[in-house]
Amino acid sequence: MTSQKHRTILYGVTILLLVVAIVAYAAFPVPTPEEPIRLMYHTNAGKVLFDHQTHASAGGFALSCTDCHHLHVGEEIEPVSCAMCHPPRPEGMAVPESCFDCHMPDEIEDPMIMKRSDALHEQCMSCHEHYGKGPTFGPDECAKCHVM
Amino acid sequence: MNSPKKLIVSHAPFWHIGSAVPERNYNILIAALPAALVGIGIYGAPALAVLCLSVATAIGWEFLITTIAKRPNTVGDGNAAVIGLIFGLLLPATAPWWLVLTGTFVAVVIAKQSFGGIGATPFNPPVLAYAILSVAWRVYFDYDAQLANVNVDFTPFYPLAAAKAFGSGAVADIPLRDLLLGFEIGGIGSTSALALLVGGIYLVARGYVRWEIPLAFVVGLFATASLFHAANPASYAGPLFHLLTGFSLIGAFFLATDDSASPVNTVPMLIYGVVGGIMTMLIRNIGAYPEGVVFAILLINLMNPLVDKIRPKAIGKVA
């Protein structure tokens, strides 16, 4: 059997741990970075992990932002997610208010624009083909990105 | 339950090592500390938050349930703290608070107390909790998805998932040094092979864990991985990789060795461990999950009463 004194110490330690946990949870949440590190897509064909940081950093594949972020990059505006213009779902996505700083609504709600999965497939694979590295078009390549 | 007037023969464990239950539990905590520290060193404050919350809530649930059920207060024996710490070590560093809280509830209240408390659990409580929660909330146990926003300067994907999906080539460049030191995407305290070995050897040396189970587990895993690798080196990564990644070593030393869910005689312990290692590799290589340790251990926990029947006959008695 354990003594009362022993237990009192234990309760003290427990409360201390709880306080540390609450403080650490509250003060150090893992932030969603401005510029993505890795992106995980959960698709109906399994999941795809896209290593944004390695693609874009000098120590990685050393691509420049504009190789992928094809519109709206330059001095006046930071790259935005492809989903802003290429809707990730068939029903589209709410356009952020900030877009209307520069655009009229009818300018940017283009029904003809390809959806995000097509845009990503197209861009990822054609670039890989261009470099001769990384997964490209073709039925054998799907499983090099998609994890079922 | 513990009426002082009756003599009670409790369930396993029966190995006598000359010390009491609390001492054993506090030694397990000490043994798990290196792994916990490595996790905190790599993932920082979020890992600390998960571990502290996990230990504190496990103790809290134990206190609550024993109070409500009017059972003897067993908080002081340290077993709840062990359950909390081990469960926390398996989680990704970004595990949300409610996941930790539910996990320790399942481990302490359902997997431990509802079966009768310490010494009566048929399954290792953290393992059962992990299994239930990871089936219910699969994406929260997907280390790639959970740690996607964590900036790391080592291989930025969960090695077991990559090995399973893309073959051994995808993990061929991961330096063994990283796997030893814990520079690996995975559970907070399950990644550093070295830290787990130090803790595990400490437990074995002090007699808190019998050497048969971890050794047999490691041998079973290593041998099965070698066979797969020899049969098809392009699809199946090598045995050393499998031994040093994922939950292999935390499984061998801290999960499979749960006293009441593991056998007590030498031959059964060896069988139990070897089967655990083999099952781990079967699930990893041909099963549906990238990591097999958790389900393999549930399976051997399940077969524990069966293998434990293999025991020396009592002398001088007709059976």
Automatic annotation (TrEMBL), chain A:
Residue stretches spanning the membrane: 9-28
Keyword Iron listed: yes
GO molecular function: electron transfer activity; heme binding; metal ion binding
UniProt binding sites for heme c 1: H52, H55, C65, C68, H70, C82, C124, C127, H128, C142, C145, H146
Keyword Electron transport attached: yes
CDD domains associated with the record: Cytochrom_C3
Cited SUPFAM superfamilies: Multiheme cytochromes (SSF48695)
Cofactors that this protein relies on: heme c
Record's cofactor remark: Binds 4 heme c groups covalently per monomer.
Binding annotation for heme c 2: H69, C85, H86
Record's keyword terms, sorted: Electron transport, Heme, Iron, Membrane, Metal-binding, Transmembrane, Transmembrane helix, Transport
Gene3D superfamilies assigned: Cytochrome C3
Protein name in the entry: Cytochrome c family protein
Species assigned in the record: Desulfatitalea alkaliphila
TrEMBL record, chain B:
Electron transport listed as a keyword: yes
Alphabetically ordered keywords of this record: Electron transport, Flavoprotein, FMN, Membrane, Phosphoprotein, Translocase, Transmembrane, Transmembrane helix, Transport
Organism expressing this protein natively: Desulfatitalea alkaliphila
Gene Ontology BP annotations: electron transport chain; transmembrane transport
Segments crossing the lipid bilayer: 28-61, 81-111, 123-141, 185-204, 211-230, 236-257, 264-283, 289-307
GO cellular component: plasma membrane
Name under which the protein is recorded: RnfABCDGE type electron transport complex subunit D
PANTHER family on file: ELECTRON TRANSPORT COMPLEX PROTEIN RNFD, ION-TRANSLOCATING OXIDOREDUCTASE COMPLEX SUBUNIT D
InterPro entries registered for this protein in UniProt: NqrB/RnfD (IPR004338), RnfD_bac (IPR011303)
